[in-house]
Amino acid sequence: MLRDELVAPESRCFLNTSTGECVKVCIAELHDHELLAVTPEGLLVLLHDRNHVRLLNPLTRHLTKLPPLTTLLPSEDHGMFDEDSDDMDFIAWGSGIASDDSTFVLCFDMLQLLGTAKPGDDHWTLLKYNSDGITVAPLLFEGSFYCVSDDGVLVLKIGADQPPRLEVAAKMEDMRVSRIADSVHLINNCGELMLVHRRRGLTADNKSGSWYDTYRVDLDTRTLFLANSFGGDAGRAVFIGMHCSLSISLEAFPTGSISADTIYLSIDVGERERLEVGAFHLADGSIERPSTYSGGLVARPHTLADCLSLANAVL
């Protein structure tokens, strides 16, 4: 879902990153709902009166009601439902439909809690977790929820006879992540689970000191492997933000508009403006400056990379 400050309040443009096709849709529900997230399936997670959760298919207009948030958050946290509370607590990226096609996973990573429910349920099943402050972009990948802690890449297990629980899916034995300076981002790279370790490390070749170590997550061997390519016949590139990520194929967009095997920083990543880091090339570790930047937002005219960097940000 793209951003455009000049568009009508209830109108949104949706970009198909596989074909490059863009569709404009009028969504009347945005008049009285807050947008919590877009799921991997393209559904919108909406919040009405800061309590009632609804799932909207923006193309078919089908609306599914889910249990209210008062059944998920402990009573001591119900003050967050007040209009003057911090809206950022209600960012729900990492949410989506589980692999059983009937359970919905609702993730509030800033609160470090998960809720699972099915349409028709009257309450959420709560799971609190500790990401140790290093995962900023949890991910629903092929119907399973993933996040990262000091223990490694964690996956949410949902069973009929057991409460939801997080288990280690892959270990990070040789990776050292600073909770102050670093962050870890999970990516669905066209059906392949990948991980980006965003870190600082001054060298002569990279004046900004910004590095983005990229790994493939092997769920069979439960290990990580360093990677210097995102693959794809025509090449792929990845946009990372502080709450979500986006992988695209270059063949869907004009030649030269996006570089292969490159990590583009979304507008909400601090070093894009502070250190003028617009993109990081995996092959040689070189940094590309952003084309335009001002106060965290890009100026017109947008390049395609600017548009995708803005669309992938949570502001």
Short structural summary:
The protein is mainly beta and 315 residues long.
Number of strand segments:
24
Number of domains: 2
* Alpha-beta content class: mainly beta
Round the Cα radius of gyration to an integer and report it. Answer: 19 Å
Major sheet: order of its strands? 11-16-17-18-19
Count of alpha and pi helical runs: 2
Low-confidence stretches: none
User: Span from first to last CA?
Assistant: 14 Å
The fraction of residues in strands falls at 35-45%
Quick check: average pLDDT? 84
Pfam family, one: Beta-prop_KIB1-4
InterPro entries: KIB1-4_b-propeller
Protein name: KIB1-4 beta-propeller domain-containing protein
Element layout with pairings:
Blueprint: E1 11-15, E2 22-26, E3 34-38, E4 44-48, E5 52-56, E6 63-65, E7 96-97, E8 104-108, E9 113-117, E10 125-128, E11 135-137, E12 139-141, E13 144-149, E14 152-157, E15 165-170, E16 183-188, E17 193-200, E18 210-218, E19 223-226, E20 236-240, E21 245-249, E22 262-265, H1 270-274, E23 279-281, E24 287-288, H2 304-311
Parallel strand pairs: 11-16, 20-22
Antiparallel strand pairs: 1-2, 3-4, 4-5, 5-6, 7-8, 8-9, 9-10, 12-13, 13-14, 14-15, 16-17, 17-18, 18-19, 20-21, 22-23, 23-24
InterPro entries: KIB1-4_b-propeller (IPR005174)
Protein name: KIB1-4 beta-propeller domain-containing protein
Domain KIB1-4 beta-propeller: 27-280
